[in-house]
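Section 5.1 Outputs to date
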Amino acid sequence: MEKEKSIVVGLKLPQISGEQIGDYLDELELLADTAGCEVLQRVVQERQRIEAATFIGKGKAEEIAKIVEEKGIQVVIFDDDLSAVQVRNLERIIKCKIVDRSGLILDIFAKRAKTKEAMTQVELAQLQYMLPRLTKMWTHLSKQYGGIGTKGPGETQIETDRRAIRRRIKILKEKLKDIEQERYIQRKSRQDFLRAALVGYTNAGKSTLMNTLVGSDVFVEDRLFATLDTTVRLMKLSNAQKILISDTVGFIRKLPPNLIASFKSTLAEVVESDLLIHVVDVSHPLFEEHIQVVNDTIRELGAESKQTILVFNKIDLLKDRTLLTELSKKYKDSVAISAKRNINISNLKNKILNLISDDFIEKIVETDHKNYDVISKLYQIGEILERKFRNQKIYLKIRFNKKQLGNFSKILSTIGK
């Protein structure tokens, strides 16, 4: 399929540096490429404030219109969200498709969604984004969403379409309620295990780290939002200590609020986890800004109080390794790794073990040495630290997660029966 020719547009306000606007447009180009666009040119407009009617100002819009005509551009992509009025005014001047950052991200999510849950979440976010932006340029939605019937007296097509979208939004919200309930049941079945969630800026290497830690087969691609669906795997930290680890959707600067709301059931893995593993692409020039974006999103989810390990990934791509010394001083208890090259992964596992040590308790159990069923179950729920035989008895010193205390009590209750 032939790629659409596009231009990316950034607005440099006084609080944004030249380096930042360059990085923002680099990221926007990556997003455009992921969505299937070929970026032929980037345009930066420097202003003191946003122009209410056209965002960038009429003069710059007319300048872009000339480029569009000369180069046969099919879509102009803005690095910020545009209002319905701004889109309408820009379309009148530029005479091609106008897409803002949220619209582009939603389009990528729609293309990447594979499961029924992800597709439902994305469709809901798209419709909520679309509803306030309906203009006369939108085509009739009856074929797409169905069940509209004929227009009422004096009712415009846009009003009819709005009713169709609201009806579809209601249906999708009901579907997501059912999905959220299923997710809750799944998480409840895993409550006996400590749970860690991988979080981070998109393309930080979370899925690669997941594969390295547990030997799973999570899809990995060097593109933004390569994976949308949460994957949960059991990770072995020692001979008997295990933890559930989940790989979540990547965060990004200016992530559409509707998208966060729609992915609530997926992001619940973050909220309900015992530990967050924050993965950072340390080779990126603005990695500290990425850290802040992720922290802000975690705060928005209400998970800022979680125990967190900061993991600086992709150290194999660093030209100046002295940066790692500086970071170790600035970010206490952080770990520097390369998930792809398997560098320092054992240090990360030890860090996780040390951090969760307070969640474990030790007990001594005495039982008949022929009580194989009890002994086998004890081995399953924890780590046997010491084993002694005396007469016909076996003495076991066991270390296990506090979440297994209920199971431990059940096992003890069967001794002597």
